[in-house]
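#dry-run=false #mode=assembly
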Amino acid sequence: MDYKALGLIAGIEIHQQLDTREKLFCHCPTKLRESGEHSGEFFRFLRATESEMGEIDRAAKEEMKRDRKFLYYTYDTTCLVENDEEPPAPLNDEALSVCLTIGKMFGMTPIPQIHVMRKLVIDGSNTSGFQRTALVAVRGALPNGGEIETICLEEEAAQRVKDDLFSLDRLGIPLIEITTSPCMHTPEEVQKVAEYIGMVLRSTGKVKRGIGTIRQDVNISIASGARVEIKGVQELDLIAEVVRREVQRQQALLAICDELKKRNASVAHAASQDVTSLFKETKSAVLKKAKRISAINLKGFAGLVGREIQPGRRLGSEMSDYAKKCGVGGIFHTDELPAYGVTAEEVTMLRSYMHAEEQDCVIIVSGANEKQTACALNQVIIRAGIALSDNPVPEETRKMLEEGSTAYMRPLPGAARMYPETDVLPVIIGGERWNAVILPELLTHKAQRYAKDYAIDLNYALQLATSDKLPLFERAVNEKIKPKLAAFTILSTATELRRDGVDIRAVTDESYLVIWHAVENGRAAKEAIPALLRSIAAGSTADSALAQLAPAISRAELETVVKKIIATRSDFVKEKGTAALGPLMGLVMEEVRGTVDGKLVSEILRKEIDAAVADKNR
Amino acid sequence: MAVVKLSSGYNIGVPPLSCTCIEQSVPAPSRSRVMNKTVGLPDLSIISTGGTIASRIDYRTGSVSSQFDASDILTTIPELAQIANYRTLPLAAILSENMTPAIWQELARAVYTEIKNGAAGIIVTHGTDTMAYSAAAISFMIDSPVPLIFVGSQRSADRPSSDNAMNAVCAAAAATSDLGEVAVVMHATTNDDTCAIHRGTRVRKMHTSRRDAFQSVGLPAIGSVAYPSRAVNLTTDAVRRGKHKLALHDNLEPHCALLQFYPGMSPDIFRAYEGYNGLVISGTGLGHVSTLLIPAITKLIEAGTLVVMTSQCMHGRVCDRVYDTGRDLLNAGVIEGGDMLPEAALVKLMWVLGNEKDKIKAAAMMQTDLKGELNRRSAHGL
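#status=ok
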């Protein structure tokens, strides 16, 4: 597909948790907990408030359609600040330093005086009803010629446990938000830029690692489409696919609009009607338990509501997302019926009752009462109206579904959702502080340096540089361990053991170092490393694991062992010749239990086999 | 630094010299709402004095200050309109640490006029820091047949999680209830489920920031309001609507003070109170101060200051007859303040001295329960 011709414009926002000692606005640790460990709970209601300019944000208004009560879990690692029961502490200076470092790495300009703002978020993920955020630096450069527009320092939201239940352990962990300009024009380019930014972030050594610690939001539009923000892409590999599918969706919506216009489709006379009685005898489980079923007729929409706009998503799915804001479970439409227990006879009855012609699509919705179904159908009419308007792709915030399709979340938030955080004093970033920021080495540069200095393969070096065991590697090299030995253990041995089900995370950096030193000074053979790691992972200390090895032996002793083994298998050796080396190697290594380097064993074995064979030939 | 609001909504501070003023915008005023009267609902008056329940950003300092008035509160909390019809009366817009006895007097007069004009209940919005003092002051100055409810919020009104809405709704419910005395209505727990109704003379702010900061001391809360059902429950201790006839006694003697004793306190401190008409001491334990202070206290009393002893324990009753120091204090002429809260005792002393010039009678009044501030029995004590 020619994305440039389609006018694809994309930008990304990257949210990365920082690995600081304390949270952004309190002195709690940045430690994630299991929800089962919670020590208490409380509940609150949230309501939208006006900005200081006297407006209510449209995204916040949307959330207010539902009257929601939120329940929160507290922990012995959370405090009254997370509970919104105490004013925030001053902005965490460690987190600010990390932000400044990252800003400087992108060649950005710091803001002279940072003001913390409250970004209104009343979906319950913040006990206060807002997320604290501050603009720290602006205007940086990307390798593709694009621009990093802003870096913001934010507090992480609470983790949703289920529905309206949230866990407060994550709330307040510092988060850096990096926003690029809309400078990307192909799906692959978006992914590349995201990868690059991720690499820069990890170069600081001060960001959290693991699933959920980095999230990408993607802003996408195509010519005659609209800007759509897709939230929470957690896997980097999916970014390009998300972009491709959004382009597909916007194109499909544009095509549907053309078709609707051709058909003279209209929502002007769509009026909600009570059809509860039509489904009195229904087999549909959903409709059966409904207190009220209402329907509308969308003129000229037949076949289009059910048309796929991206894998697994139809125009009907978009309408359904809108309707769900009123608390209903979703909608049914005649493009997909009969199905879900609704019979063909019921569909015929419904169409005739609604005076639907062939080109019309009837939407039904079930709910607790008339108010709820009316609200939901009103939302459907609004969404259908958008589909045939001059701007058929609405500006929206969407959430990612599995595999890269997306669902509607809320309208794009406006500036009205920003309010000054009056409880936090502004922070001045003086020239002195900015000049003192030291730039860490980029991981890509580090990898190149490793490849050159330690003669390791560049790909291997890259893996090492991006590994979370990088600090261990650097420590090992400083302690004069052979770089190749450390790199091989970290990247190959440990990975293989993990795949084997060994709990390799239980091995501390100190244990690795003890093992490597033992190998370096001849106390252990490098062949013994897997066994040693296994034993440590299973709970023994590095020293006791080493003590399990056979006592160190001299070359002369080793020669005696080898000779003894060859003597007991002389026929085999004479028959196989040098091919006996492999099988005998295992026997010798077993005998010396990992205290001797395999190279030496192999050298002596070879010599003794040669001698034995020569003896035979003589 | 000059604060600039970017189109993204972010504020940043930049050196003023780097700015050029193109135009000045004025924050749009909050849309005011025409309030229609609903027939059949009781008439309440909301008197606003400021505080967190009505606070907004102040661009002068960047912090919050009290600028809202009662009609703003009604616009912001539309549920209030289901409970009553309201008359709103902006009396002051101050943070409660700036409250003065003179404003208490204005407030008492305003309350009196509103009740006289037919209000079925009064809501006073107030900063929480000194709300308990004001509630006590109004308790002494007004005999009221209707509920007089003080309400505030611990978390500012400009945040979605503010406790202002629930507190205000519960206050309105209490103001239309069968209650007939001055009370403070605030969150009972950290959950948004119940507000407690505290007697105005027995309540104290016991936490700097939690929603449930207000606690009744020496008497359980006299009632509760469930949220969002607004069901009001009053205990048998609560004075019922109509029990008292409306009366205003708005004299106060502001030349009174409250002094907290601490180990090592110098007798020199008492010199600062020379000429005061009344002094409440918040003593230790059963009501003690260091023996070394007794001559200075004696001197004050001889010069005409009425000295009342209370305890910094908060819970429990003073008794200066147990230890030597206590007996020395009694001999010096110190009045035992029973189980009165130190703050309530101070406000009461201002009121008593404002209305009774005879020191002996005034001393007797300090030891008589007037508005539920002094329990005769320690039935509910800790």
